[in-house]
Amino acid sequence: MRFPQWEARGFVPAVDVLSSISRLMNDVASEEHKSAAQVIRRLLAAYAEHEDLLSIGAYRRGSNRVVDAAVEMRDAIEELFRQQVDQRLPWDQLVGQVQALGAQCQSKLKSAPAAVAAPQLAAASAA
């Protein structure tokens, strides 16, 4: 199945990563590769779930650390999926790029600010 919205953004092949399930991933990927792919998918899903709020400027940074990381990593993730139709990449090089990106995403998840805490009532702090 083709996904014109992905194709229009230069993703080749134009596959909806969030809707696709690889039958071969477990057979061809190492644990590190699968873990990296999982964290990348997690950020793609968080962005997709909040895309409406993000597009109208209603999302408030700091309210969801996963969405914050997804926003920060969005360009890098899309760059991984963007290539020329005739471009070929050796498997080991591709896996290395996925693992490096996964590590960057994981780092952003760990360093993303926690949700803003609700202010304490003045009376409670005075007691």
Structure in words:
The protein has 7 helices and no strands. The protein is globular. The longest helix has 21 residues, at 91-111. Helix 3 packs across helix 5 and helix 3 (31-49) crosses helix 6 (91-111). It has 127 residues and is mainly α. Helices cover 60% and strands 0% of the residues. It has helices at residues 4-8, 25-28, 31-49, 51-55, 65-81, 91-111, 122-126.
Low-pLDDT regions: 117-127
- The oligomeric status of these chains comes to single chain
Shape: globular
**Relative strand content:** under 5%
- What proportion of the residues is helical, as a percent range? 55-70%
Outline the biggest β-sheet.
Answer: none
Instruction: Enumerate how many helices there are, as a single number.
Output: 7
What is the mean predicted local confidence, pLDDT? 81
In sequence order, what are the helices and strands, one letter per element? HHHHHHH
How many beta-strand segments?
0
- What structural category characterises the helix and strand content? mainly alpha
Radius of gyration: 18 Å
Instruction: Report, as a whole number of angstroms, the end-to-end distance.
Output: 63 Å
In short:
This protein has 127 residues and is mainly alpha-helical.
SSE map:
Blueprint: H1 4-8, H2 25-28, H3 31-49, H4 51-55, H5 65-81, H6 91-111, H7 122-126
Helix pairs in contact: 3-5, 3-6, 5-6
From the structure above, extract its key features.
mainly alpha; 60% helix; 127 residues
